[in-house]
Amino acid sequence: MSDYDERPWLKLYDEGVPQTTMDLPYPNCLVMFDARVEAEPDAPCVHYFDTTLSFGEVDRLSAALAVGFAEECGVVSGDRVAVQLQNVPTFVLSMLAIWRLGAIMIPINPMYKQELTGLLGDSGAKVLVQHESLYPTVGKDAAAATDVQHVVTTSELDFFSGPDQALLANSSRQRHDSTLDLVELAQAHEGQRPEPIDLKPDDIAFLVYTSGTTGPPKGAMNTHRNVVYNSEVYRVWVGLSSDDVVLAVAPLFHVTGLIAHIGVALLVGMPMVLGYRFEPVAMAKLAEQYRATWAMGAITAFVSLMNTPEAAKHDLSSITKVASGGAPIAPTTIEQYEKTFGVYVHNLYGLTETTSPSHGVPWGQRAPVDKTSGALSVGVPVIGYTVRIADEDGNDLPAGEIGELVTEGPGVVSGYWEKPEESAKAIRNGRLHTGDVGFMDSDGWFYIVDRQKDMIVASGYKVWPREVEDVLYQHEAVREAGVIGVADEYRGETVKAFVSLKAGATATKDELIQFCKDRLAAYKYPRQMEILDEIPKTVTGKILRRELRQKDPAAPQSS
């Protein structure tokens, strides 16, 4: 029997936490939501600035929208619907409407520009739901280049009420020809409901695209079983109930927002506080206004709350349950947050492919720090999960040895959308080979010490260097490009690019950075740039990122 079969971490669970896989509380996400509607239709479901929508209102609006999607856009079971929205009420309405038709939601980062076309093409999306402001510059051309048949637009001003918000200062209504308006679509079918549909636990709820660690974006097939189970994990692990209020710190289009915000909120019947996008002062004000109790997001969000004086002035004492994941956390940051707000930040770890949590620091316990590396533990496997440390041949390594984290559990996806070879490589016999490198100590605590390949994690978002390099190659002056991650005090890591120019061509660092900024999401474009005579390469022409790292002391060094 191996160290992992003995499950040494079980003794670290708090009393009352199940030590084996839990029963699936609902067969699908829609039944989970409908149970809350039946139990408490008048309870608040969404707070958006000064607007509150009850569970009953969200139910009626999403049902009407589902009829609109079906009749006006032809959406049927199995279709893919892409949703490119910030943290707004219409994100939740769209998600529920899509599920009511047996369709699959593709949440997409609103910062995506050139990337959108690729995701729409890969998924075969039939409908695109996005902010009005994105349509002229991003949506129109992407839809025309793919199989998208209808574009439905909405605005952050929909359902907004209250005093003027600096976040929405530049917002205005922008109606566009050849698009449908989401709210009007729901209003046109007010009081109508689609025919009930029988969603199976293993039907796909989300296609969440991830760059992973092995190349271009892939659509992880997160099933209803995955979503419901890991929502239940959050409920039990953190101790959440309808008395709690979730502050949506993470973006809803990210797997953390989908599960730690929406999933568990619909499961337990607690309201979600949405604030369009994260801005520390606005979020602190909303947290105080609605007495938020639970917050989960990248550590950069909590650093912002600490270091923005106007945000720290608000009463955040109600937020007593805090967790962070998605990027390495320095132990000193945990100490600073606890000193500022009196609350310990529990480390959690998971991937898109594990449908959010696979590890967590048990509630009420504190994560140990590895004496050798100084790394903060990401916790122990959550309920129902077994995680092994494996060598390059897939063999279990003993406690203390460094290798790849290999995860199995109810949240692990079955594979990637229409990519059987990549699926078979990453998920073998139900075990996900994460691409993350770490170790387990003798007590069952896990630590992440590195990442395989060259993945960059900036503010909790994964950036694949090839994607940035491909954009740089589009610049007429660029001959070669190499991209690495370098340490950044705020983001954890940030993107740095090295380029060489074509003979006789000229370009400045600022010009190249702006070129990328115009074409990539905000967290992807390089903040730093160096122009070299030659980019180091192998004899076969492969960029040597190892040598690029050696040129910058802020870059993580590897052998």
Could you characterize what this model shows?
The protein contains 16 helices and 26 strands. With 559 residues, it is α/β, with parallel strands linked by helices. The protein has two domains: 46-367, 3-Layer(aba) Sandwich (Rossmann fold), CATH 3.40.50; 456-550, ANL, C-terminal domain (GMP Synthetase, Chain A, domain 3, 2-Layer Sandwich), CATH 3.30.300.30. Strand 1 and strand 2 form a beta hairpin. Helix 2 (55-73) packs across helix 6. It is globular, with a radius of gyration of 23 Å. It starts with 28 loop residues before the first helix and ends in a 9-residue tail after the last helix. The model has no long low-confidence stretch (mean pLDDT 92).
The CATH class of the largest domain is Alpha Beta
The CATH superfamily of the largest domain is identified as ANL, N-terminal domain
Low-confidence stretches: none
* CATH 2nd-level architecture of the largest domain: 3-Layer(aba) Sandwich
Q: In CATH terms, what is the fold-level topology of the largest domain?
A: Rossmann fold
Structural class designation:
alpha/beta
Q: What distance separates the N and C termini? A: 33 Å
Mass-distribution shape: globular
Radius of gyration: 23 Å
Care to count the β-strands?
26
The count of domains is 2
Order of strands across the widest beta sheet?
2-1-11-10-12-13-14-15-16
What percentage of the residues does DSSP assign to strands (E)?
Answer: 15-25%
Estimated helix fraction: 25-40%
Biggest sheet layout: 9 strands, mixed
